[in-house]
From TrEMBL:
<feature type="compositionally biased region" description="Basic and acidic residues">
    <location>
        <begin position="62"/>
        <end position="90"/>
    </location>
</feature>
<feature type="compositionally biased region" description="Basic and acidic residues">
    <location>
        <begin position="192"/>
        <end position="219"/>
    </location>
</feature>
<dbReference type="InterPro" id="IPR019186">
    <property type="entry name" value="Nucleolar_protein_12"/>
</dbReference>
<dbReference type="Pfam" id="PF09805">
    <property type="entry name" value="Nop25"/>
</dbReference>
<feature type="compositionally biased region" description="Acidic residues">
    <location>
        <begin position="118"/>
        <end position="129"/>
    </location>
</feature>
<protein>
    <recommendedName>
        <fullName>Ribosomal RNA-processing protein 17</fullName>
    </recommendedName>
</protein>
<feature type="compositionally biased region" description="Basic residues">
    <location>
        <begin position="178"/>
        <end position="191"/>
    </location>
</feature>
<keyword id="KW-0539">Nucleus</keyword>
<feature type="compositionally biased region" description="Basic residues">
    <location>
        <begin position="242"/>
        <end position="251"/>
    </location>
</feature>
<dbReference type="GO" id="GO:0005730">
    <property type="term" value="C:nucleolus"/>
</dbReference>
<comment type="similarity">
    <text>Belongs to the RRP17 family.</text>
</comment>
<dbReference type="GO" id="GO:0019843">
    <property type="term" value="F:rRNA binding"/>
</dbReference>
<keyword id="KW-0175">Coiled coil</keyword>
<feature type="region of interest" description="Disordered">
    <location>
        <begin position="62"/>
        <end position="251"/>
    </location>
</feature>
Amino acid sequence: MLSAASHLMSNIALLTKSHNAIAAKKKARKDQIKEILFDDDARREFLTGFHKRKLAKAEAAREKAKARAKQERLESRREQRQMLREKAKENAAQVEQAYGAVIENDDESWDGIKDDDNARDDEYEDEEQLATVTVVEDFDPDTIIHGPEKPEPSTAPRPGFSTAKATPPPELPPSSRRIAKKSQPKVREKKIRYETKDARKREQTKQRARRTEKAERAGGKASRKSNAGPGKGSKKTSSGGGKRRHPSKGH
């Protein structure tokens, strides 16, 4: 009986397994794709577009590099503007401090000792030590812009000078005025004469001729001196060192 029961169980398992296999095959057959269709244009584009895709990739890389360079340039400009803004603030603070806008610090409430004297540096030198003393003066920006103030002329009368106003000269009658005008010497205006072109040429020609004549005279004198040198020596040797008599002007 046991063998018959085991044989029955094995048959049931085999039938169940085969039934499951048949059901799976039916399902696979039902879900199976009947036909695969390819897009010829897309297939051709993919197979022949390797070079085009390579160029497009390089162009995209260049555009990306340009965008990155532009971003870096904008960032550097932003940093430069920020630096210039901070520098301008510092300069404005220095100018305000120089012009006396910033008088005291907020942390310190004591103003210190004020002195009305102008600042000056005084040096005190001893045999062993040299000390420099700086006296602080009040800063006035108007002295830089407009210069030092000129002292106003005093209205007090000087000793030795009278404060009376100068009396104007008495008016003369018309006849006296004419006589006074005639008595005054007339100042003649200097007339400037301009030479013409021909006159300048003639003057230049005359000056050139004078210079040539002077040069010829100087050359003739030099040649005569050179020719007269040996003759004088021969006269000295022939005379034997005696005194020569110069002919008188009458001869």
